[in-house]
Amino acid sequence: MDVAKSSKADAMAQALWKVTKVVLDTLDYKQVTQAVCDSLLLELGYLELGYRIIVLILFDEDKNGLQRISLSQTPEAKAATSASSIPFEKIVVPLDAKDNICVRAFREKRQFITHDWQDILSPPLLPEDARKNQHAAGIKTSMVFPIDVKDKTVGVAIFSMVKGEEEVSPEEFDLIRGFLEIVGIAVHDAKLYSLLGEANEKLKELDRLKDEFISIASHELRSPAATVKNYLWSVLNDGVNLNEQEKEGIRKAADANDRLIKLVNDLLDVSRIEAGRLVVNPEVFDLGGLIAETAEEVKRKLLRNGGTITAETTSVQVSADREKIRQVVINLLENAVKYSMPGKQVEVKVSRKESMARVEVKDQGIGISSDQTGKVFTKFGRLDTTDTAIGKVSGTGLGLYVCKKIIELSGGKIGFDSKLGEGATFWFEIPAS
Predict the structure, then answer these.
(1) Kind and range of the H or E element at 132?
(2) Who's near 78: CB < 8 A, 6+ residues apart?
(3) Which of 11, 105, 282, 319 gets the most CB atoms within 10 Å of its CB?
(4) Domain at 283-431: CATH architecture
(5) Distance of CA 143 to CAs 52, 196, 299, Å?
(6) 2-222, what's its fold?
(7) What residue spans in the chain does CATH classification 3.30.450.40 cover?
(8) What pLDDT, in 10s, does the model give residues 308-366?
(9) How far apart are CA 198 and CA 195, in angstroms?
């Protein structure tokens, strides 16, 4: 069960990231609302848990009713809309329909469950028509949750399943409720943007709300992720009697949870950067010693594919934020491993170049094509490796962006040299003491 919790937490982070990226890349209202419905099923993996249709419904003040806004793109959803006597986008439930559980969830701010679609579609559909839609989709149970923003209910979400409510785990309920809090902020921000137009001062406020959205979501995920990490560590290291298959399952869960923690930390760093609140706390330390120590840490953690990390270091004193420089080095080493074929070597070197301390991380990977070099160090700048020997590489595209900001705040510079098929060398320089 605890391994499953970790896997769900990782899936939650991926879904969160998809919605976050949509909100940051575009504030188009239709794109945001559609992404909400698709992310819940596809990114959270809830299709495998029996969920088939997600409907986002928002309050329309002009119509004084609940307007259907977006629908998940699944075969069951298409079957339901095809069977409906009223087009999906024209279904509006008036707020005076007191028996409709969508209206009740909206008014009473609580969850409802039904096995009969007349409870959510009547009116405007007749009971027999509502049940025909349900039968066409093969749905057994539907759960209705309110969507709140700053203590104000703005709509509801319907989760329709091919299983009974008794099969819904507490963890599923918790993830749905947590995600809907983020959905409320995302939809609110997107709708606000559509009304603001080109008003510059309002756009600044929207930027602040986006940063607030990332910060809130990240902080909410940090504590449970840390708890899961501690639990998994104790299971692996406190003499619990496990067979090899169970140990491997725990290790995979721990890796997934580490990815979640890294994602949360990256999101928090981006939030601080955008708000101008990323602060460095300089101290004098030996950069060569830090690199050697960090290389060993990454070697133990990542190199299960038969590769190696070699470190060539010399003692160079610097005055910088030790933990943030360590964060940069870990990111560069992890990227080097990630973009290399199994069994290849990664080299890290520390040297002094006049008044600067220089770190180089060299891999024997696929290299970077000239048409993709502009993506490096940009926010969300992920390289397309689909047609390469290593295949598609996972990641958020935030790590190198954060690294660049840290090095610049440290009074240094960062860059890379690469040719397609010949690997890459990433480097940074900071002032030596």
Answers:
(1) helix 127-137
(2) none
(3) 105
(4) 2-Layer Sandwich (3.30)
(5) 12, 34, 46
(6) Beta-Lactamase (3.30.450)
(7) 2-222
(8) 888 998 899 999 999 999 999 999 998 888 888 777 889 999 999 889 999 999 998 88
(9) 9
